[in-house]
Each structure stands twice: as structure tokens, then as C-alpha cells.
From TrEMBL:
Its EC number is 2.7.13.3. It comes from Leeia aquatica. It is a multi-pass membrane protein. It comes from the Bacteria. It holds the Pfam family HisKA. It is found in: Cell inner membrane. It catalyses: ATP + protein L-histidine = ADP + protein N-phospho-L-histidine. GO terms for cellular component: plasma membrane. Residues 242-455 form the Histidine kinase domain. This is histidine kinase. Gene3D superfamilies: 1.10.287.130, Histidine kinase-like ATPase, C-terminal domain.
């Protein structure tokens, strides 16, 4: 029962064919009606034949001869009678001045012997209406009557006949059309069956090429999606392996120092083991926090409430919290920003961008270096820049610098390689972008973040 509620290609074809029949029906009726109107009316056709008969009348010929000539034309007149109606009736009457009524023929109806002038007349005979033509030649008077057909009746008769032919054509077309549709969707059924039979971790592309050009885009899109999913799963495996590798070191230190702390016999050894234990625990906690933050940014697509924030004030507060770290390394930390810059944004994602960019700059810039933070408005976007005169990032490493756990080869500073990956994920979550360039005077680095004034909330 549920399958009948779902959209179906076969039903769409059936409905499409029926609609084409209904649309074609009035068009064919109109064409047939116009053709009949453009042709000579039936009574005119018959009158032309009757004129040829009248031309054969010779006043000197015997009455019997003339009547035989008229009767000889009966088949011709009957053949010219319009066949658009089953009840079409042809009446004709022949009268001589002296001989009187010679012929008065017709089915169920007879023309009246009334005084009429030559020409066309509309007479009501019984329950039927007739178009009557009268021609007089000498003593001969010939009348021809033909049942009248109104426009409405003509349209009805045309519609009835055309509808029968259209329904026959519809049934004839329906069978090959259903066969063609069934054959066309067979590859889709085969693909769905093959995919259903696969194991959950089997993301190989479909090897069979599409037989029809219309299915090729779907085949390519599906194979592209499978490749992307396979790449995503490979990234997740690498992510888990790297996370386990990064956690192994602090956990090993914690285990070792806990053993040393438990077995130490003097205060200096205990104090040293305690410091190492706290440092390892802090490193593990920081790594776990970054992993959770990155996972939340990348996988949590649920809408988050955005709020009106003064980005300039948030930057000043963040710099005030990070200033002690820069002061220990005698670094110059500056901010160039307007007094206020109100935007609609998700606070947690924005805070991750600020903390990681400025925190990385403080961590990797040498002692006595300078870090400049600027905030400005660029059209429908607001822009945050963090530049420094530190060691910089080689061009070869800039392509992968935003990957998870990626670190520059000759970097000796402690870190997890997750900070910039978190920044990129946060920018994407807010509908923005991040770019990496050279710092002032070609030294160091410059990270530029652009986010819409009405940032996304998912």
C-alpha cells in the first residue's frame, strides 16, 4: 500500500500520456471543424450536382426520359450526402406543371408541396430541420432537402469520433512506453541491488558504466560520492591513529611519573615527578580538548544560536588574557580595530578562531618578535588579520598546514598540529574563509579570516 503513495515513473508516464491525449483532443476537433468550414458546405456540393442534372433537362423530351435521367443521378446524390451523422437524410422532389408530382423521395420525411422561390430555404419538417434548395427550369421544379447540422452538433460528432481513435492510439502507445520505462530504470534497480549487497565499508566505485546517456551524470555523481566517502573514512582512520599516537606520549609519561612518584624516597624526586606528571596531564587534557573541539566543529551540523557580538570588544578581552604569555617572551602584541563592530555570529566558533590564531602566533614567534592583530569591515564581510614577523611557514608546507596533526618538519615548538585545523573548521562553520600569506616585509605569516556579517549558525 505504501508503494502506491510514493511517486512512480510509470504513473508519471501514464499521466503524461493521458494529458497529451486530453490536450490533443480539442486541437484535433478544432482542426476538423475548420477543415469542414473551409470546404464547400454539403448542400452546396449536392446543389452543384443537381445543377448538372437540371442542365440535362430538355423541355421537348418526354417526361419519362427526364425522370429516368434524374433517377440515374440518385446514387451520385446519395454519395454526396454528408456522412458526419448517422441520421443524415437526403430528400428530393420533382414536379411538372402539367404532370404534377412525379418524385417525392426520402427516409421517413417528405418535402412539402408549398410555394417557395428558387434558392436556399430552412424548413422544419416534423422534428427535423432541413436545408432545402429549389431550382425551376421551364415547367420543371426540383427541390433538394438535407438535414441541417448545427455547429454544436458537428463539434460533438467530431469529438466522439476523434476520441475513439485517440483512445486506441493511447493503448497502442502505452505498452511500448511502459516497456521503455521499465528498461530505462532497470540499471537503477541493478545499482541499488549491488549497493545493498555490499559490506558497510565497501566504498569502491561502481564498475559498470551507464548504458544510457541520461544515467551517466548520476553514475558519475554516485562514484564521486563513494570516492569522497572513502577519502573521508581514510581521513577518520588517520585521525584516530594520529590521536592515539599523540596521546600515547603523555599517557606514557603519566604512567612513568606516577610510578616514580609512588616509589620515590626523597622530596626532590617526588617534586620532579609531580611536575612532570602535571605537565603530561595538562598536555593530554589540552589534546583531548582540541580533539573534542575539532570533532564538534566538523560533525555537529545542528543549528546553533547566533548572537549579536561586539567583535572589537571580544578581541580586546582575548588579547588581555593572552598578553601575559606574550610578555614572558618580550613580544609586542598590538591591536588595530574600531571602537565597536557588531556582528551576528556563533560565539564559541569565533572564540576558537581568535584563541588559536593569536595563541599560535605567541607560541611560534621568537622572543622579542611582534604580533599585529587588525579588525576591519570589507563590504558584507568583516575581516580579522593576525600577522607576525616570526620564522614563517615554507611554501611547500602551506598547502597542508590546515590538515589535522600536520606540523612543519623543522618546528621544535611543542604542539599538536590541531590549532589551524580547528580554525579552518570554525571558519567553514560560520560560512567564512581563511587565507595564509606572508607577514610584514615578506617575513613571518599573515592569516586573514573573512566572515559574513550575518554568519551561518551551523
Amino acid at each position: 500500500m505504501r508503494q502506491w503513495r510514493l511517486p512512480s515513473l510509470r504513473r508519471r508516464v501514464l499521466v503524461g500520456l493521458l494529458l497529451s491525449v486530453f490536450l490533443l483532443w480539442p486541437i484535433l476537433i478544432l482542426v476538423g471543424y475548420l477543415e469542414i468550414q473551409n470546404e464547400a458546405p454539403p448542400l452546396k456540393q449536392v446543389s452543384m450536382a443537381m445543377q448538372s442534372v437540371v442542365a440535362q433537362i430538355d423541355d421537348k423530351a418526354p417526361i419519362e426520359v427526364i425522370c429516368s435521367r434524374i433517377l440515374a443521378q440518385q446514387k451520385l446524390l446519395e454519395a454526396l450526402t454528408p456522412n458526419t451523422a448517422d441520421d443524415a437524410v437526403l430528400l428530393w422532389q420533382v414536379k411538372h406543371e402539367t404532370a404534377g408530382m412525379l418524385l417525392n423521395l426520402g427516409r421517413s420525411y417528405r418535402l412539402p408541396d408549398t410555394d417557395l422561390i428558387d434558392g436556399n430555404h430552412r424548413l422544419q419538417i416534423g422534428d427535423a430541420s432541413f436545408d432545402v434548395l429549389q431550382v425551376t427550369k421551364g415547367p420543371w421544379r426540383i427541390r433538394l432537402g438535407l438535414t441541417s447540422v448545427t455547429d454544436l452538433r458537428l463539434l460533438w460528432m467530431l469529438g466522439k469520433d476523434i476520441w475513439i481513435y485517440l483512445m486506441v492510439a493511447f493503448l497502442v502507445q502505452l505498452i511500448p512506453m511502459f516497456i521503455a520505462v521499465s528498461g530505462g530504470i532497470r540499471p537503477l534497480r541493478q545499482w541499488s541491488q549491488r549497493i545493498a549487497e555490499r559490506k558497510p565499508d565497501d566504498l569502491r566505485p561502481l564498475e559498470e558504466a551507464a548504458r544510457y546517456s541520461e544515467l551517466e551524470p548520476m553514475s558519475n555523481a554516485l562514484n564521486t560520492l563513494l570516492c569522497q566517502l572513502r577519502g573521508k573514512m581514510d581521513q577518520e582512520r588517520a585521525f584516530v591513529q594520529n590521536a592515539a599516537h599523540e596521546l600515547r606520549t603523555p599517557m606514557a609519561v603519566i604512567s612513568t611519573q606516577a610510578h616514580v612518584l609512588a616509589s620515590a624516597t626523597d622530596d626532590d624526586t617526588r617534586q620532579q615527578a609531580k611536575l612532570h606528571l602535571e605537565h603530561a596531564a595538562h598536555r593530554a587534557s589540552h589534546l583531548i580538548g582540541q580533539l573534542l573541539q575539532l570533532a564538534q566543529l566538523e560533525t555537529d551540523h545542528a543549528p546553533r544560536p547566533a548572537q549579536q557580538l561586539d567583535v572589537a570588544q571580544l578581541l580586546r578581552l582575548s588579547l588581555a588574557q593572552l598578553f601575559p604569555l606574550a610578555e614572558r617572551k618580550a613580544q609586542e602584541l598590538s591591536l588595530q580595530a574600531p571602537d565597536q563592530l557588531w556582528v551576528t555570529v556563533e560565539r564559541d566558533a569565533l572564540q576558537s578562531i581568535i584563541d588559536n590564531l593569536i595563541g599560535n602566533a605567541i607560541r611560534y614567534v621568537q622572543e622579542g618578535g611582534s604580533i599585529a592583530v587588525s579588525l576591519n569591515l570589507e563590504g558584507a564581510y568583516w575581516q580579522l588579520q593576525v600577522s607576525d614577523n616570526g620564522p614563517g611557514i615554507p611554501l611547500a608546507d602551506r598547502v597542508r598546514i590546515f590538515e589535522r596533526f600536520y606540523r612543519v618538519a623543522d618546528n621544535t615548538q611543542p604542539g599538536t598540529g590541531l590549532g589551524l585545523a580547528i580554525v579552518k573548521a570554525a571558519c567553514q562553520r560560520l560560512g567564512g574563509s581563511i587565507q595564509l600569506g606572508d607577514g610584514p616585509e615578506g617575513r613571518g605569516t599573515c592569516f586573514t579570516v573573512q566572515i559574513p556579517m550575518q554568519a551561518l549558525t551551523h
